[in-house]
Amino acid sequence: MKGKTAIITGGGSGFGQETAIKLAQQGVNICVVDISDENGLKTVELCEKEGAQAIFVKADVSNLDQVKNYVAKTIEAFGKIDLFFNNAGISGSGVRTLECSEDEFEAIVNVNLKGAFYGLKYVVNEMLKTGGGSVVNTASLGGVVGMPTLGVYSATKHAIVGLTKTIAGEYGRDNIRINAIAPGTNETPMVKAFPADAIAAMADAVPMGRLGQPHEVADVVVFLLSEQASYIHGAVISIDGGSAAL
Length: 246
Ligand SMILES: NC(=O)c1ccc[n+]([C@@H]2O[C@H](COP(=O)([O-])OP(=O)(O)OC[C@H]3O[C@@H](n4cnc5c(N)ncnc54)[C@H](O)[C@@H]3O)[C@@H](O)[C@H]2O)c1
What we know:
Organism: Jeotgalibaca dankookensis
Family: Belongs to the short-chain dehydrogenases/reductases (SDR) family.
Strand order of the largest sheet: 3-2-1-4-5-6-7
Bound molecules: nicotinamide-adenine-dinucleotide
Order of helices and strands: EHEHEHEHEHEHHHE
Pfam family, one: adh_short_C2
Protein name: Levodione reductase
CATH class: Alpha Beta
EC number: 1.1.1.-
Number of strands: 7
């Protein structure tokens, strides 16, 4: 992986940050894309601590100009893009799905679907110029099964699965591998803030009896991005303690 260049959207927290650090440990140049300066700059600092070169580009992934800008800034800094973790996403307020407001519907679709599509469109275009690359899109357990009270989120994540499979069919011969991950509920800062009994109930619903840890997701992402996964293409990999199996 040494000398390769990765873009990680939503790189300022959670799965994105964990993945950035693990890639930095392997000598990958990192472009952290995030809407939050604080989060993005923190990840850059953590990558630099690992001895990697890293830049932060502030962007809202649902804004086309800002997507074009993070692609351009990465090329300017590192000359190419080899790896893309297309990961930024938001969930929802947890109301019954048809009670979701129009504004919330639009916000979720804009970030999770439009943002992921724009990223793919402009990053893959750069990969075509340099002879290939590897992409991991972040779907969700909610992208392979329904998710009560998070129906719009679930719909956008099903869309990510559709995009992944379709684009894999279209770009495999261009030496661009495209896969998706479908993580179950993880102990991210957001989940950790829930009441203890709610966390216990969520963990109890998982066949393995516990929630995931972000590093368990990041390990799979790094593997999928690497040459070790050289014949994995168009796959949707569940990382959910068995939840999708039920
Ligand atoms: N945490 C879970 O349990 C879980 C489970 C399944 C799927 N996911 C998915 O994994 C991805 C990452 O989740 P996480 O838990 O690491 O999230 P997180 O909230 O810890 O981090 C997300 C990062 O994305 C950034 N971000 C939000 N909106 C953005 C935008 N419009 N443009 C650019 N950056 C933006 C945030 O500032 C934040 O730094 C998301 O797509 C999420 O839907 C999470």
